[in-house]
Design goal:
Shape: elongated
Number of helices: 2
Order of helices and strands: HEHE
Strand order of the largest sheet: 1-2
Strand content: 5-15%
Radius of gyration: 20 Å
Number of domains: 1
Distance between the termini: 38 Å
Largest sheet: 2 strands, parallel
Length: about 80
């Protein structure tokens, strides 16, 4: 294999791997506080509020573990966390 062809293949692999890395999805895990639904709800609100602004290369996926999350009668607003 010629050096030019090998360099082209290596360069293509680097380009492909950098574009794949930029589209990674970050996950925010929210766990309930055992025996305290109000603290669980507070943790959920804080976790969603602390997610940075998403963009086409900055995707976020909240994962909420099973449990009771008391939101104290107010709605939970969830913004768009990026497009896939």
């Amino acid at each position: 294999m010629s050096k030019t062809k090998m360099l082209t293949i290596v360069f293509a692999c680097i380009l492909f791997s950098s574009s794949v890395a930029s589209a990674q999805i970050r996950t925010v895990l929210v766990s309930p506080v055992p025996g305290d639904p109000i603290a669980s709800g507070t943790n959920l609100r804080n976790a969603l509020a602390n997610i940075p602004s998403p963009s086409s290369t900055n995707h976020w996926s909240p994962k909420i573990e099973p449990g009771i999350y008391q939101l104290q009668g107010t709605a939970l607003l969830v913004r768009s966390l990026g497009r896939y």
